[in-house]
């Protein structure tokens, strides 16, 4: 049912079409609460928010509303590793075991760091069943990954490390720097750039954090696992914990609604539980789109960013039902299925349900979108991609 939704913020007249799409997403009930932010050559040109935090529509989404952005967090996690690389503390081609000796178990003694960032490590899932809620225990997760035998010969294929990516990269960062991934990101990116983005959310922020609301259930009688092609294959395997794909998403299991608990918010799950604003995501990518510097604050060198966006793999993904995925070193790269603008050098990361952040260095764009109504699909949302099309049409 169409309804008028309060929309706030600013939008340069040149990009009025983006605001129109943002508003229409609410009118068609695609969104409940959401925010979109865009920078052009480091300057904010769109900063909009609207809708509500709750299904009763009794609390409005505010300027500083935080929300969990799932895998959009992976871009921030990758940036931490790249900062260590440019400081000479991390070698992408060195064995992971050089920094994390226990990782050498089960034939992984030569597995290079770059495979962790490019989803080629063969460690998207744990075969040993872990207790419910083990996601919150860093030592349990990293010890299990150190013991895990790769599901394929590392480097011979790629498969999305949906949750394990953060523990793998985060433990390398911790072993080198002595800081947890969340603290490393805070010290080297969030505080210098003034980003309202948190990997490990303190309780004082709960009052301004929106819950996530589950995606609408399929129509009665429909069965998405019976759809033809990759999406059906993925949905079928995802519900079977005995498969690699099922284990990637279901081991350890989570209680329904866990994403909205204090326990989830407090933990550092660097592949999946960053909490932030669209403005923070856009500003983070604005720095990367500008060669690593924003407002006289440098967080990465231009050559570091160029290295990060070099294609590592492009083709059928062994976890996501053989969908074609294109990865650089920690970032998803532009492709037809992830149309983050027309330029092939665009890079970033979407999150489950619809959030997304990306940089387009050729266009000078930093983009961030957050929402609290989960959408069906694997990468991004139709509403976000519609805004992205309108944005580039206006350039």
Description:
- With 395 residues, the protein is an alpha+beta fold.
- It has helices at 16-27, 73-86, 113-117, 138-147, 164-177, 181-193, 230-238, 244-250, 262-266, 278-289, 302-308, 382-394, and strands at residues 7-11, 33-40, 43-51, 67-68, 197-199, 274-276, 293-294, 297-298, 313-316, 324-327, 332-333, 347-350, 356-360, 365-371.
- The protein is built from 12 helices and 14 strands.
- Strands 1-3-2-14-13-12-11 form a 7-stranded antiparallel beta sheet, sandwiched between helices. Strands 4-6-5 form a 3-stranded antiparallel beta sheet. It has a two-stranded antiparallel ribbon with strand order 7-8.
- Strand 7 and strand 8 form a beta hairpin.
- It starts with 6 loop residues before the first strand and ends with a helix.
Quick synopsis:
By secondary structure, this protein is an alpha+beta fold. It is built from twelve helices and 14 strands. The strands form four sheets. A seven-stranded antiparallel sheet has the order 1-3-2-14-13-12-11, sandwiched between helices. It has a three-stranded antiparallel sheet with strand order 4-6-5.
Throw out a few tags for this protein.
single chain, 395 residues, alpha+beta, seven-stranded antiparallel beta sheet, 14 strands, 15% strand
Low-pLDDT runs of 5+ residues are none
Helix content, binned percent: 25-40%
In the sheet with the most strands, the strands line up as 1-3-2-14-13-12-11
Mean pLDDT: 94
What is the strand content? 15-25%
Overall spatial form: globular
DSSP, total strands:
14
The biggest beta sheet, please?
7 strands, antiparallel
- The number of helical runs is 12
Specify the oligomeric state.
single chain
Question: What radius of gyration results from the CA coordinates?
Answer: 20 Å
What structural category do the secondary elements indicate? alpha+beta
Could you state the order of secondary-structure elements as H and E?
A: EHEEEHHHHHEHHHEHEEHEEEEEEH
Spatial separation of the terminal alpha carbons: 33 Å
């Amino acid at each position: 049912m169409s309804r008028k939704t309060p929309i706030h913020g600013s939008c340069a007249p040149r990009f009025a079409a983006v605001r129109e799409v943002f508003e229409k997403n609410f009118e068609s009930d695609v969104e409940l609460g959401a925010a979109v932010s865009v920078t052009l050559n480091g300057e904010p040109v769109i900063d909009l928010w609207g809708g509500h935090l709750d299904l009763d529509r009794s609390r409005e989404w505010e300027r500083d509303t935080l929300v969990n952005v799932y895998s959009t967090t992976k871009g921030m996690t990758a940036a931490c590793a790249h900062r260590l690389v440019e400081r000479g503390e991390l070698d992408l081609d060195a064995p992971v075991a050089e920094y994390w000796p226990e990782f050498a178990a089960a034939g992984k003694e030569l597995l290079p760091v770059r495979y962790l960032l490019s989803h080629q490590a063969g460690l998207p899932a744990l075969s040993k069943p872990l207790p419910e809620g083990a996601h919150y225990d860093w030592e349990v997760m990293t010890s299990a990954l150190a013991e895990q035998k790769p599901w394929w010969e590392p480097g011979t294929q790629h498969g999305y490390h949906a949750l394990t990516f953060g523990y793998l990269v985060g433990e390398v960062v911790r072993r080198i720097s002595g800081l947890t991934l969340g603290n490393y990101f805070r010290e080297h990116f969030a505080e210098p750039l003034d980003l309202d983005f948190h990997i490990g959310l303190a309780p004082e922020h709960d009052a301004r954090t929106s819950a996530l609301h589950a995606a609408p259930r399929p129509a009665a009688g429909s069965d998405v696992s019976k759809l033809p092609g990759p999406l059906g294959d993925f949905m079928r395997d995802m519900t079977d914990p005995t498969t690699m794909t099922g284990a990637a998403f279901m081991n350890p299991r989570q209680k329904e609604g866990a994403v909205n608990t204090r326990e989830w918010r407090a933990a550092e799950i660097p592949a999946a539980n960053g909490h932030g604003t669209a403005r923070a995501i856009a500003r983070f990518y604005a720095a990367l789109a500008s060669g690593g510097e924003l407002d006289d604050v440098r967080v990465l060198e231009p050559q570091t960013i160029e290295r990060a966006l070099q294609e590592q793999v492009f083709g059928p993904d062994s976890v996501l039902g053989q969908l074609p995925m294109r990865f650089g070193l920690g970032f998803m790269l532009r492709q037809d299925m992830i149309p983050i603008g027309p330029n092939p050098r665009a890079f970033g990361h979407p999150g489950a349900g619809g959030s997304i952040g990306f940089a387009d260095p050729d266009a000078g764009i930093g983009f961030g979108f957050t929402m609290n109504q989960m959408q069906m699909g694997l990468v991004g949302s139709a509403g976000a991609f519609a805004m992205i099309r309108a944005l580039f049409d206006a350039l």
